Amino acid sequence: MLDVVRRTAESVFIPLTVGGGVRAVADVDTLLRAGADKVGVNTAAIARPELIAEIADRFGRQVLVLSLDVRRTPADSPAAGGSGFEVTTHGGRRGTGLDAVEWARRGAELGAGEILLNSMDADGTKAGFDLALIEAVRAAVDIPVIASGGAGALGDFPPAVAAGADAVLAASVFHFGELTIGDVKDTLRASGHPVR
């Protein structure tokens, strides 16, 4: 994996975030030395929340992206803690019992610099972003929130930003040539949202 990070870092001229398998401060150090600008953590931080503070203390919070894979649950479910959103792992297949809104708040307090908020329910559906999830997490944290999961049309992006996302992430619509990044930027700009 390090070779892929090195080659990618040499080829792209935008900030590179790398995640997957990050379990310790040493892993972050290795990825940063290989060329990553930011590192994403998920499962290891759930298992050991102090990892967030350790990474932020060593490298600064701007390096750390806390990734949340979230599923909707009934609001009265103990797994969701009342918000109706539960943090999951293993590609959304395993519930953690953690309330997603509370976990985002705690992650920010511990030192996460950004939240990557992936709606596992919306992911791949092309039915639009989970606006209620974005709004709930935005209300709980004052760090950047990147919304992911559900993008299918140009009209899906402005509502996600209006709901509180600082950035929006999409994959398949670009991979399969259904949309272009330029078209998304133009749509956001036309909706009055700042675009870089």
TrEMBL record:
Catalytic activity: 5-[(5-phospho-1-deoxy-D-ribulos-1-ylimino)methylamino]-1-(5-phospho-beta-D-ribosyl)imidazole-4-carboxamide + L-glutamine = D-erythro-1-(imidazol-4-yl)glycerol 3-phosphate + 5-amino-1-(5-phospho-beta-D-ribosyl)imidazole-4-carboxamide + L-glutamate + H(+)
Keyword RNA-binding: no
Lineage top rank: taxon: Bacteria
Top EC group: lyase
Record has Amino-acid biosynthesis as a keyword: yes
Family classification: Belongs to the HisA/HisF family.
Record text on subunit structure and interactions: Heterodimer of HisH and HisF.
Protein name, UniProt field: imidazole glycerol-phosphate synthase
Organism in which the protein naturally occurs: Polymorphospora rubra
